[in-house]
Amino acid sequence: MKSLTTLQILQDAPVIPVIVINDEKHAIPLASALVSGGIRMLEVTLRTAASLGAIERISNEVPEAIVGAGTVCNQADADAALRAGARFVVSPGYTAVLGRYCRQIGLPLLPGVSTPSEIMMAMEDGYSELKFFPAMQSGGVAMLKAFSGPFEQIRFCPTGGISSHNAGEFLALQNVVCVGGSWLAPSDLMVSGHFTQITAFAREAKALRRHVL
Length: 213
Ligand code: 3PG
Description:
The protein is α/β, with parallel strands linked by helices. The protein has a single domain, classed as TIM Barrel (Alpha-Beta Barrel). Helix content is 41%, strand content 16%. The chain is built from ten helices and eight strands. A four-stranded parallel sheet has the order 3-2-1-8. The chain starts with 5 loop residues before the first helix and ends in a 7-residue tail after the last helix. The protein binds 3-phosphoglyceric acid (3PG). Residues 18, 133-134, 159-162, 181-182 line the site of 3-phosphoglyceric acid (3PG).
């Protein structure tokens, strides 16, 4: 299977859902619901015992979805994600060890940063598409505007504290390609089986407007 570029991952839709799966049986209905709403780039966080099984099932059973792993903190996480079928990985922060390892194994990485020094470290290793995390807590829109001066060539996926209410403000920025957020996949809707509501959230997210890419 051809490897994706990080830019392709970010450009696919205005929102990458950040997914926490507590019960593997929710993986297929959730992925199908999101895909039905037009969102196919899915980040399943490695925070629960069910996460790797969920990635494997989505990868095998929902061919329209492109599943990645989030909360990837080290090489072992990256290896486990790749083995489960993840097509990309997302990390909350950046280390050169992780950045170089993902490049070596050909696994697209969207690394998290929240300071100029972290941006510079990721740039040194050739990363120019970065997750701004945690976005709201780290200065939000104002911080991204400040980054656009010294780091004109860097593109961001802000994540953390973003919802349908404020996503538009971020998507209007020239240095933002898409946003990430957990609001598309609330656990109470998964538990209660309200997957049609999740499709509605996805449809709404897919229709968000971005600045012209
Ligand atoms: C996370 O790592 O949990 C993501 O940043 C999601 O944050 P959110 O729940 O604020 O969207």
